[in-house]
Amino acid sequence: MEKLEIINLYGKDVVVNVRIAKARTYKVSIAYGHLYVTRTERYSLNEIRDFLLRLLNEKKVEKLHSELFVTDSYIDILGQRKRLVNLSKGQVRTSSDDFVVINDKDLEKKLKSLTKDIVTSRVRHFEQLMNIPEHTVKITNMRAALGKNYYLKRLITIDKNVIHFSLEEIDALVIHELAHYYQHNHSKDFYNIILTYCPNYRKIIKKLIYGERV
To answer: What is the model's pTM?
Structure first.
């Protein structure tokens, strides 16, 4: 179970995705400019707010934002904001650039399919460029992590939210995961591989972490 909350930190509203866990735990991470909190079922917003204020300083919170990737009126696709038309809500298409869906279920299905197609095409491109054998690509809800390479299985999982960002940022993430084929850790040699194919990697990847728009 997951719930979206808007919490004010240092006078700024930020997006906080709260996942309910059965076991007693308290995990916090940052991705896409949003906060991801895993908490037990009984929680209060004041409790989470106080914990986040102890954990995060004002400078870090300044990098976060309260913008959503999908609302009733718009959707971010590959770094571009498009008008979202949900036919089940009586909305009408007015432009060929509109993102049209039948209902909420259709929206989820289309986003997952589009993400899978685009990420797979970029993985295939860089597999050839980096002389790496073909990997299976899986799109899932990873929350804190952006991607993961199960190198023994030749399986790459990518978080579903990458579809909201540009191809440049998706490519940086794909290169990162494919580089684990050669280096299974995050050593200097690992990053040297990444920088060979993505010289601006460190700058680009921050856009995914802090949700900067292109």
So the answer is: 0.87
Distance CA 170, CA 179 (A): 14
User: Helices 201-210 and 167-179 meet at what angle, rounded to 10?
Assistant: 110
From residue 30, alpha-carbon distances to 140, 149, 159, 199 in Å are: 17, 20, 13, 24
Q: Are residues 38 and 132 in the same domain?
A: no
Query: Which of helix, strand or coil describes residue 160?
Result: helix
Cα–Cα distance measured from residue 165 to residue 168, given in angstroms and rounded to the nearest whole number = 8
44 and 116, same domain (yes or no): no
Residue 99 and residue 194 share a domain: no
User: Cα(45)–Cα(8) distance, rounded to whole angstroms?
Assistant: 10
Same domain, 98 and 110: no
Same domain, 112 and 200: yes
Query: Residue 191's domain is classified under what CATH number?
Result: 3.30.2010.10
Closest CA to 149 of 174, 118, 112: 174
Report pLDDT digits (tens) over 139-176: 998 866 799 999 999 999 999 999 999 999 999 999 99
Provide the token pair at 94. Answer: 């007015």
Kindly report the length of the chain. 214
Query: Do residues 110 and 57 both lie within one domain?
Result: no
Looking at the structure of the chain, the number of domains it has is 3
List the one residue out of 19, 28, 22, 24 whose CA is nearest residue 49: 28
Distances, alpha carbon 169 to alpha carbons 14, 98, 204, in Å? 22, 23, 6
Structure tokens at 143: 């929350």
In-domain check, residue 67: no
